[in-house]
Structure formats: structure tokens, C-alpha cells
Specification:
The chain has about 325 residues and is of the alpha/beta class. The protein folds into two domains: about 1-215, Rossmann fold (3-Layer(aba) Sandwich), CATH 3.40.50.300; about 225-295, Alpha-Beta Plaits (2-Layer Sandwich). The protein contains eleven helices and 14 strands. The protein has a six-stranded mixed sheet with strand order 6-7-8-3-9-10, sandwiched between helices. A four-stranded antiparallel sheet has the order 2-1-4-5. A four-stranded antiparallel sheet has the order 12-13-11-14, with helices on one face.
């Protein structure tokens, strides 16, 4: 459905996107991840036609964004990080305005707007001024404008940024419902959200693709490391320095609570350090109160890919 081929974007001497290529299949939800300044928003703006590329090709449903921009834009709904809202309009007035911009036939506008407001949970707020809505509901209005014209593709740039946990859950539910009939590219810094919604992940770093696969396969690829979480009672510096002396421990993260310290260890998968850890801690009179293995999360994958490996602190 979406093909990005050798895409490059330069701002003078600065290369924001450097010869990247990936595709998104029809009906797929793709998570697009990267640190600030990685090239995510630039790539999404090029896909939607808001920015021209320096080189490379973007195709949507077989249409090239450069040669057939109107055909591409008809197929795309875009929710930028800051939704383009006119706050002095009511929800209905604003969606009617967007419908006219997107050239939705007059005889279909009312019915389509009603369906969209029902889908994103705005029906009861349709007569309210956008300025009087909560941030979560303004985000729903932004999502509603992206759905006007019934596009086959949705590009969502940080759709839950700035929302509280309840609002995030509500918007996530809406996105899952939308995914049943559409292809979606979702950019987010909320990694558990991407893991819960997306079927495949592309991680971009410094303008290039650093990793691309399902969250499960990416986790398998970096499982040369395992994570072990322990609660150990005693002096933190002594515990950390003792743990660092154990062969196979790659990284240590410590946090303190009421005299009991929690430690997360990343270690080589082929070296089980638990026995040695037990005897070392017993030797310095720092008892292990709890120990449990942890699977690598999408956040671990992201950090591992972006930093190109971890080191002991």
C-alpha cells in the first residue's frame, strides 16, 4: 500500500533522512520510532505531501507523490503532532469545512460526518466550540479531520502526546477500531503503546533505518542479553561494585526504596549469573530478598538499537 524507496531529505548540508526504504502492506499497523531529531516527522511529512523530498520515491496505492500528488492525498488522512484546529468553530462546523476542502460531495458530507463523529466518540460534542473541549477531545477532533474523505491510509504523528492515561486508553481504542479497515503508520514516544497496537516496527536513528521487524522478532534478535531484576538489602555502592566484578554482567541500573535497593542487570544470555550473584552478595552480607527474570520490552529494544549496545555503568 505504501512504498518508500531510497528517500532522502536535506536541509542545506544537514541530512535529515538518508536514503531510507521500507513498505507498509494494506491493513497493516506500522510503528515508526526514533529519538527526537531522528527524521520521523520529516519522513511522515514527505509521505503526506507536506514536504518535498530531495531524492527518492514515495508511492501510495501505486501512485507517486511527485507525479500524482492529488491521487496520493485523496488516499491519506494525516494527524500531525499539533492538530490543525480552528478553535472558534464547533466540531460540526470544522468537519464541514474540512469536508469542503477535501472535496467530499455535498450529498455525502452530512452522513459521513455523522459516521466519523460516532466512530471517534464526538457525537455528543458536535455542537460544542473546539476551544471549550478538553485536550483529549480536541485530539479526537484532529483524528476526525484525518478521517474525512474515508482515506485508505492514516498517518498519525504522536497521536497521544500530552494526554493523560485515561485519554491515552481512549485514543488507543479508537485507533484499534480504525485499523480494521485502514493502513496505519503510527509515530509515538510511548513505547508500550506501540507494542500494544502495532504489528511491525521501523526504528529510525540519525536519518537511517536502524531496525525493522515485528516487536517479537526484534526482541529475539537482541536476546543475546537477558535482564534480571533483584531486590537486595545493603549498601548500594558495595552491591553495584560487587556485581560489576561478575563475568557476564553488562549493565546495572539501581533504584532505592526504604533501605532496600532494586537492581536491574543485563547479562549475556549464555551466562547464568544467579548462583554467583547469590554467593557474592552473601559474602558481603547483602541478602537477596527477591529475584526474577524479565523479558526484553520494546523500550529495551529501542534503547539497544539507538545506542548500539549497552555498557556497564
Amino acid at each position: 500500500m505504501i512504498e518508500i524507496i531510497n528517500l532522502t531529505k536535506k536541509y542545506g548540508q544537514v541530512v535529515a533522512v538518508n536514503n531510507i526504504s521500507f513498505s507498509v502492506q494494506k491493513g497493516e499497523i506500522l510503528g515508526f520510532l526514533g529519538p527526537n531529531g531522528a527524521g520521523k516527522s520529516t519522513t511522515m511529512n514527505i509521505i503526506t505531501g507536506y514536504l518535498p523530498s530531495t531524492a527518492g520515491t514515495v508511492k501510495v496505492d501505486g501512485f507517486d507523490i511527485l507525479t500524482h500528488p492529488e491521487e496520493v492525498k485523496k488516499r491519506i488522512g494525516f494527524l500531525p503532532e499539533a492538530p490543525p484546529l480552528y478553535r472558534d468553530m464547533t466540531v460540526t462546523e470544522y468537519l464541514s469545512f474540512v469536508s469542503s476542502l477535501k472535496k467530499v460531495p455535498k450529498n455525502k458530507q452530512k452522513g459521513q460526518m455523522a459516521d466519523i463523529m460516532e466512530l471517534v466518540g464526538l457525537t455528543d460534542h458536535r455542537r460544542r466550540l473546539i476551544d471549550n473541549l478538553s485536550k483529549g477531545y480536541r485530539q479526537r477532533v484532529g483524528l476526525a479531520q484525518a478521517l474525512v474523505g474515508n482515506p485508505e491510509v492514516l498517518i498519525l504523528d504522536e497521536p497521544t502526546v500530552g494526554l493523560d492515561p485515561k485519554q491515552i486508553i481512549e485514543i488507543r481504542r479508537v485507533i484499534k477500531a480504525l485499523a480494521q479497515e485502514r493502513t496505519i503508520i503510527l509515530s509515538s514516544h510511548i513505547l508500550p503503546e506501540v507494542s500494544a497496537i502495532c504489528e511491525r516496527v521501523v526504528i529510525i536513528n540519525k536519518g537511517v533505518i536502524a531496525a525493522e521487524d515485528t516487536p517479537q522478532r526484534l526482541s529475539s534478535d537482541i536476546n543475546q542479553f537477558l535482564k534480571l531484576t533483584m531486590i537486595i538489602k545493603g549498601d548500594q555502592n558495595l552491591i553495584v561494585n560487587t556485581a560489576k566484578s561478575i563475568d557476564g554482567v553488562k549493565y546495572i541500573e539501581a533504584s532505592a526504596k526504604a533501605g532496600e535497593n532494586t537492581y536491574k542487570y543485563v547479562m549475556d544470555a549464555d551466562k547464568d549469573v544467579r548462583d554467583e550473584m547469590f554467593f557474592k552478595m552473601a559474602g558481603i552480607n547483602c541478602p537477596i530478598l527477591e529475584s526474577k527474570p524479565s523479558t526484553m520490552t520494546l523500550e529495551d529494544i529501542f534503547i539497544n538499537v539507538v545506542t548500539k549496545g549497552t555498557e556497564v555503568n
